[in-house]
């Protein structure tokens, strides 16, 4: 009896027509206004009715609950015309009053909605409802990509926030068992239909199992318990490719980057000579030149990654710039560069001008096999220059404490997830005053002329709606980053998915939420 | 020629073989043959290569020496500590026993994970892999004794009340002296504890890698190689991932045979 | 009267242990690196709300004494405080999980002891070292829990109870085999065997009683080992038990949950001590 029991307590029996896949941890909230983590954001994407939706495949804004929308030429007035006959999942009517209430709720400081900051000055935004179908939003200043902000604002019944239980989106939250699963039920009153007039969504429901174990996930996927694997680790990609060749998809480079950087913060507790190394452009460029990125992609990702030299991936067609000149692999040039700034070899050990051995550690987070492999490969690559590198994996809280609070680290290898193709979304990483300016957080004034120039270019692109000018400014930032190597970009991991052969309608994209962006049109083929 | 003799020779042979492999092989434990990761057996790599193209045989041999040294020492220290605390508590005054067991119980319930994190944050990040390994085994030894000490205390208390001990005390032997005769009787608790702790420490060392402790790259960690077994994606690629666990079992069985007659 | 005094003594001891454990774990968790950091700080989208939550936490737990009294106050109010990661009362989190973990523990310990006793009775009667029995036990000790779980997944059968009981059985077997082997060689047993007394009767009437006190010593060890294995087994098999909760609480530095879990640990450990103390006292009486 004990021997025969199933492998684990999870994988609750599947309801008819239900799609199932996993999420890594419990969503912190189901209140769509308060979403501040990735899994909550997924639940919001699947349940929320929004005025506009950013189409993850075409990368264009589409009207959703709004029939049409319009942005005034000064970029400060948005007018939404709602569709007629809209209903919430409980059958009650959805009018402009509900839309205005939901937008105002997001803007209220008391709500603490993370989306509010995307309005830049949420306090000055006004929302009006001239009639039942029209919503007018006035902004105190132009906001780049304002349309996309409405992709994140769920329209809820006025005065009755329901934590996803009553929505105007394709699904509603039906059941939640902490650390087991979230169950979503089809919204019978959802207004969208397919070309043949069939009501969407096709699926009767969605079950999101909370499971952070790729081994089990791959296993249960093979058994047909899960229909989808989002963000498949490369080794399991290869495993599934052997077992179910038709189920795996490699979409090529994702928008995400893996990078390494040196701690350049002048307030860090590092000894002065180490700061001097890390703040030296030639030192960073030499390190960058010594790293064999092709090996990283081939070995650490089993070929499912693409060498990276900039923060904008080739998957980001609108913003990618192939004209950037970045330092490529060239160990001889790296050695010459180090020699030119006083580094020299004593035996096999590199020393700086004052005779101190170049020894530092690379931090990374525990539990990410690919990163640990990359760090070990880099350790070997840098040993060729005579640098002694130790690799230390820490659990996330301890790692973040060093990166964000004590700044007690020398170098770090981590990834950055980009959800939005527009580089303006990364502005907080590039502005030198930002706490997320990782290599030297929260600078009072830019520490170097090139950081000041990045600030200028980023602010410039944020202040204009002229797309050509914005592109020029972002290209400029890319070139400065390539010249200075504050972030040493390593690879763009490929977007890897597994799709059950029974699943119909899948059109994977590299943008989050990957495979399920068109959730309304996904369905399981009936078993024969 | 008894089993124990045979086991002794085989164990020595195993260790010698590991040394010979390290001396003879043209590969070093850290050298990455990047053209052939996860390769099968070849002339150059008799046991294939790992995920980064490093020679598996050399790494296994090195890890065998390194991790065995660490784990056996740690295991011996922790078993000795358990024996010391347990018997002292049982043969000493009742209040000492009470206090020692109180400490044991508190020790067993505390979340030591966080102490390990503190140890890591107190060490400089550039601590060399070898030092980090030594510190890890030291910490494991320091944290491993209370459960066993409790069992030893229980067993020793039984002995103390056994007839021969009562007789000995009646005959004028001080409790410190009885303790010396009691120890052999506790071997049936201590020896298995010693043997069990070895693989437990080997694996624990690898698990501590997640906290930044343990044997750092590029030094080979035996536990780290054992943990590869949980990745079924790796298991289908090469059979040589089973080599470390096979060696560990062999070594444990030989140790078992070696101490069988004690 | 003696009974009441004894109970009172035990109760004081338990209270002292719980108190020490609470203080000790508060200090450990609070001063471990990463108490005031959150992985979302790295993500510009979520950084602001993560920082807001952290500043609340830092106001709450900056000084250790008020923090301790707040935590103890949580228990006095009857909800054991509010979980930092889930923002719900700790008791609501733990109570539904206790049954799951309790049943997992009981079933695996029972199965492990049955397995270990049977195996060691058979093995100790044979020649030494009996490879037939030592080999599987050693194998189980040398394979990491996660690898065992993977094997279960690959085989498509076996669950947390199986893995946990095998884990425990292998350990218990190593002790029992040795203890029994010694017992078989006891003079009175040798004598009894020469008299032709049946093996089952020997085991029942001589062996089991004579090793009872050693078995009770083993019980503590076994329960403590089971407690230690709980978190990894539950995490790997995704069992919604206390061990899984404790693991995620450790990763999220969720002090209220961790305190309650360590308190439960302390109770379980003292309870294990009580079990192993009992038979010895009966014997003395």
TrEMBL record, chain A:
One Gene Ontology cellular component: outer membrane-bounded periplasmic space
Keyword Repeat carried by entry: no
Keywords from the named record: Signal, Transport
Pfam families per record: SBP_bac_5 (PF00496)
CDD domains per the UniProt record, alphabetical: PBP2_NikA_DppA_OppA_like_4 (cd08500)
GO biological process, alphabetically ordered: peptide transport
InterPro entries for the chain: Peptide/Ni-bd, SBP_5, SBP_5_dom
Superkingdom of origin organism: Bacteria
Molecular functions (GO terms): peptide transmembrane transporter activity
Every Solute-binding protein family domain range: 60-436
The family this protein is said to belong to: Belongs to the bacterial solute-binding protein 5 family.
Name of the protein this chain belongs to: Peptide/nickel transport system substrate-binding protein
Upper lineage: Bacteria, Pseudomonadati, Acidobacteriota, Terriglobia, Terriglobales
UniProtKB/TrEMBL annotation, chain B:
GO BP: transmembrane transport
Broad class of the protein's primary localization: membrane
Keywords: Cell membrane, Membrane, Transmembrane, Transmembrane helix, Transport
Annotated transmembrane regions: 6-24, 62-91, 97-119, 240-260
UniProt-listed Pfam families: BPD_transp_1 (PF00528)
Annotated membrane topology: Multi-pass membrane protein
A cellular component annotation (GO) from this entry: plasma membrane
The name this protein goes by in its record: ABC-type dipeptide/oligopeptide/nickel transport system permease subunit
Organism in which the protein naturally occurs: Silvibacterium bohemicum
TrEMBL record, chain C:
GO cellular component, one term: plasma membrane
Transmembrane residue ranges: 12-32, 104-126, 146-170, 215-237, 257-275
Matches recorded under PROSITE patterns: ABC_TM1
GO BP: transmembrane transport
InterPro entries, A to Z: MetI-like (IPR000515), MetI-like_sf (IPR035906)
Compartments reported by the entry: Cell membrane
Coiled coil: none
PANTHER family (alphabetical): INNER MEMBRANE ABC TRANSPORTER, OLIGOPEPTIDE TRANSPORT SYSTEM PERMEASE PROTEIN APPB
Entries under Pfam families matching the protein: BPD_transp_1
Domain ABC transmembrane type-1: start-end pairs: 98-276
The protein's name: Peptide/nickel transport system permease protein
Keywords annotated in UniProt: Cell membrane, Membrane, Transmembrane, Transmembrane helix, Transport
Topology term for the membrane: Multi-pass membrane protein
Native source organism of the sequence: Silvibacterium bohemicum
Stated family: Belongs to the binding-protein-dependent transport system permease family.
């Amino acid at each position: 009896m004990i021997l025969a029991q199933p492998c684990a307590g999870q994988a609750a029996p599947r309801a008819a027509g239900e799609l199932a896949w996993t999420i890594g941890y419990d969503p912190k909230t189901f209140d769509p206004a308060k979403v501040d983590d990735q899994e909550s954001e997924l639940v919001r994407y699947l349940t929320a009715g929004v005025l506009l939706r950013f189409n993850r495949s075409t990368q264009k804004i589409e009207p959703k609950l709004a029939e049409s929308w319009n942005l005034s030429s000064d970029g400060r007035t948005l007018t939404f015309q709602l569709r007629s006959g809209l209903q919430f999942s409980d059958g009650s009517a959805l009018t402009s009053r509900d839309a205005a209430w939901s937008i105002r709720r997001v803007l209220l400081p008391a709500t603490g909605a993370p989306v509010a900051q995307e309005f830049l000055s949420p306090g000055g935004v006004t929302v009006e409802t001239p009639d039942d179908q029209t919503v007018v939003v006035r902004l105190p200043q132009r906001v780049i990509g304002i349309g996309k902000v409405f992709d994140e604002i769920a329209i809820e019944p006025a005065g009755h926030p329901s934590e996803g239980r009553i929505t105007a989106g394709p699904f509603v939250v039906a059941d939640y068992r902490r650390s087991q699963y979230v169950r979503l039920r089809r919204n019978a009153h959802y207004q969208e239909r397919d070309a043949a007039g069939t009501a969407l969504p096709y699926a009767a429901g969605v079950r999101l199992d909370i499971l952070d174990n790729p081994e089990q996930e791959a296993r249960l996927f093979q058994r047909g318990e899960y229909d989808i694997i989002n963000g498949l680790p490369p080794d399991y990609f290869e495993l599934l490719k052997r077992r179910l060749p038709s189920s795996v998809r490699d979409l090529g480079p994702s928008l995400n980057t893996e990078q390494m950087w040196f701690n350049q913060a002048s307030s860090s507790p590092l000894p002065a000579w180490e700061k001097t190394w890390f703040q030296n452009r030639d030192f960073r460029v030499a390190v960058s030149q010594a790293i064999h990125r092709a090996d990283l992609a081939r070995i650490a990702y089993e070929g499912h990654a693409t060498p990276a030299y900039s923060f904008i991936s080739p998957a980001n067609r609108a913003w990618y710039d192939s004209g950037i000149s970045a330092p490529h692999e060239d160990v001889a040039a790296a050695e010459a560069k180090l020699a030119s700034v006083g580094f020299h070899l004593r035996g096999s050990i590199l020393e700086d001008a004052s005779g101190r051995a170049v020894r530092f550690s690379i931090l990374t987070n525990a539990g990410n096999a690919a990163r640990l492999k990359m760090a070990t490969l880099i350790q070997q690559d840098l040993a060729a220059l005579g640098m002694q590198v130790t690799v230390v994996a820490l659990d996330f809280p301890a790692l973040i404490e060093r990166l964000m609070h004590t700044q007690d680290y020398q170098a770090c290898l981590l990834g950055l997830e980009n959800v939005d193709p527009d580089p303006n979304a990364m502005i907080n990483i590039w502005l030198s005053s930002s706490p997320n300016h990782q290599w030297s957080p929260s600078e009072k004034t830019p520490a170097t002329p090139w950081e000041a120039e990045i600030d200028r270019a980023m602010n410039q692109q944020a202040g204009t709606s002229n797309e050509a000018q914005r592109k020029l400014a972002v290209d400029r930032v890319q070139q400065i980053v390539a010249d200075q190597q504050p972030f040493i970009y390593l690879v763009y991991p490929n977007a890897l998915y597994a799709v059950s052969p029974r699943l119909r309608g899948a059109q994977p994209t590299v943008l989050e939420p990957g495979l399920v962006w068109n959730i309304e049109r996904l369905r399981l083929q009936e078993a024969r | 020629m008894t089993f124990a003799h045979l086991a002794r020779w085989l164990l020595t042979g195993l260790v010698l073989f590991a040394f010979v492999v390290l001396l003879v092989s043209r590969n070093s434990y850290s050298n990455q043959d990047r053209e052939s990761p996860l390769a099968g057996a070849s002339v150059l790599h008799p046991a294939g290569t790992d995920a980064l193209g490093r020679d598996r045989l050399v790494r296994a041999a090195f890890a065998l020496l390194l991790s065995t040294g660490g784990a056996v020492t740690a295991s011996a220290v922790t078993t000795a500590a358990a024996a010391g605390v347990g018997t002292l508590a049982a043969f000493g005054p009742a209040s000492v026993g009470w206090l020692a067991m109180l400490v044991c119980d508190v020790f067993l319930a505390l979340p030591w994970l966080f102490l390990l994190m503190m140890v890591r944050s107190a060490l400089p990040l550039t601590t060399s892999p070898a030092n980090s390994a030594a510190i890890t085994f030291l910490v494991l030894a320091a944290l491993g004794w209370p459960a066993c000490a409790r069992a030893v205390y229980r067993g020793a208390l039984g002995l103390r009340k056994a007839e021969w001990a009562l007789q000995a005390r009646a005959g004028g032997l001080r409790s410190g002296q009885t303790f010396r005769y009691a120890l052999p009787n506790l071997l049936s608790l201590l020896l298995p504890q010693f043997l069990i702790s070895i693989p437990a420490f080997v694996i624990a060392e690898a698990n501590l890698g997640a906290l930044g402790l343990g044997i750092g790259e590029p030094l080979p960690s035996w536990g780290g190689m054992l943990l590869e077994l949980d990745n079924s994606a790796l298991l289908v690629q090469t059979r040589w991932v089973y080599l470390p666990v096979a060696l560990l079992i062999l070594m444990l069985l030989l140790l078992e045979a070696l101490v069988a007659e004690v | 009267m003696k009974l009441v005094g004894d109970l009172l003594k035990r109760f004081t001891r338990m209270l002292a242990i719980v108190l020490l454990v609470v203080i000790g774990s508060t200090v450990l968790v609070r001063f471990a690196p990463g108490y005031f950091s959150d992985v979302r700080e790295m993500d510009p989208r979520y950084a602001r709300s993560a920082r807001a939550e952290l500043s609340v936490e830092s106001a709450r737990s900056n000084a250790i004494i008020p923090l301790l009294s707040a935590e103890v106050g949580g228990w006095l109010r009857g909800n054991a405080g509010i979980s930092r990661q889930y923002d719900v009362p700790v008791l609501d989190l733990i109570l539904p999980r206790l049954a799951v973990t309790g049943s997992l523990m009981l079933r695996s310990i029972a199965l492990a002891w049955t397995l270990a006793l049977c195996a060691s009775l058979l093995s100790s009667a044979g020649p030494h070292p009996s490879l037939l029995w030592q080999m599987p036990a050693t194998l189980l000790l040398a394979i990491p829990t996660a690898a065992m779980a993977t094997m279960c997944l690959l085989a498509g059968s076996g669950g947390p109870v199986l893995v946990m009981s095998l884990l425990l059985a292998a350990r218990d077997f190593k002790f029992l085999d040795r203890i029994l082997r010694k017992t078989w060689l006891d003079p009175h047993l040798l004598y009894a065997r020469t008299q032709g007394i049946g093996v089952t009767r020997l085991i029942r009437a001589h062996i089991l009683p004579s090793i009872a006190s050693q078995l009770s010593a083993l019980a503590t060890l076994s329960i403590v080992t089971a407690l230690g294995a709980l978190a990894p087994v539950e995490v790997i098999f995704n069992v919604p038990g206390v061990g899984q909760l404790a693991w995620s609480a450790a990763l999220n530095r969720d002090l209220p949950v961790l305190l309650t879990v360590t308190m439960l640990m302390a109770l379980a450990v003292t309870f294990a001590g009580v079990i192993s103390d009992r038979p010895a006292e009966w014997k003395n009486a």
